[in-house]
Amino acid sequence: MKIENLTINQIIEQKGLKEGSIGILKEWSHEHPKREYDKNNNEIYRESNGYWIKSKYDKNNNKIYCKDSDGYWWKSKYDKNNNVIYYETNDGYWWKSEYDKNSNEIFYYENSNGYWEKKKYDKNNNKIYHKDSNGFWYKKEYDKNNNEIYHKDSNGFWRKREGIKKLEYKDGNYYLNDEKIN
User: Fold this and answer.
1) Nearest-10 Cα torsion for 141, 144, 149, 151
2) What are the two backbone dihedrals, phi and then psi, of residue 32, each rounded to the nearest 5 degrees?
3) Residues 7, 177: Cα–Cα separation, whole Å
4) Which of 20, 89, 106, 152 is most buried, judging by how many CB atoms fall within 10 Å of its CB?
5) What DSSP element (H or E) covers 9?
6) What rounded mean pLDDT belongs to the chain?
7) Does the global pTM surpass 0.85?
8) How far, in Å, CA of 135 to CA of 152, rounded?
9) Mind listing the pLDDT tens digit for each residue in 122-145?
10) Which of 141, 110, 148 is nearest to 118 (CA)?
C-alpha cells in the first residue's frame, strides 16, 4: 500500500478509526522508512509500508537507474561533463541528446515520439539557431555585449535591434546604453 497516495480520510476509513483518533497519529505519522546508502552517501534503497525504491549511481554520483516495487523503472547515461545523454523508462519512452564542447543546453535531441531538435551556439555560448521536427526554426544574432540584435523565425516573425550596448538594472533603476530609462 502506498501511504503517499492516501488522504487522511482514506486512512481513517481503511483502519476503521474515528475522526480525531490518536491511533492514526501513532500508526502513521511516526512511520520512518528504511533507508540504505552507498559509500558516497547516495540513497540506494528506501522502503516504507511495503513500497520500495532501489537506485544505482555511477562513479560521479549521477543516478543511473531507479526501480520501484510497482515495476516502474528508468535508466540514464551521462557524458564526461555529467550531462544526461540518454533516458529510458519501462513503458518504452526514451530520449537522447548531445551537447556541445561547452556543455550548452541540448545541442541535439530526439525522443521515442519522433520529436527532434537541433541547436547551434556562437563562440559566446549564445543560442543562434534552433530547428525542430515540427518545422519550426529561428536564427539569432548578438552584439559584442551578448545582446540579441536580430531574430527571425519560420512563423515570419523578425526584429532587428540596433545600437543596444547594454541593458542594466542598478540602484533601483533601469539603464539602456548607460541612460536611465525609468
Assistant:
1) 20
2) -115, 125
3) 56
4) 106
5) helix 8-15
6) 82
7) no
8) 14
9) 999 999 999 999 999 999 999 988
10) 110
Cα three-residue angle 92-36-40, rounded to 5 degrees: 90
pLDDT at 32 over 90: no
Phi, psi dihedrals of residue 65, rounded to the nearest 5° = -155, 140
Domain ranges in the chain?
A: 1-31, 93-182
C-alpha grid cell for residue 21? 483518533
- Percentage, residues of the chain above pLDDT 90: 56
**One-letter identity of residue 95:** W
Neighbouring-strand partners of residue 110: 96, 116
CA 129 from chain centre, in angstroms, equals 22
Is the pLDDT assigned to residue 114 strictly greater than 50? yes
pLDDT at 69 over 50: yes
Cell of 32: 520512518
Taking CA atoms, 114 is separated from 74, 83, 107, 132, 137, in Å, by: 19, 22, 17, 11, 17
Retrieve residue 53's grid coordinates.
525504491
Strand partners, 94: 88
Tell me the three cell numbers of residue 128.
543562434
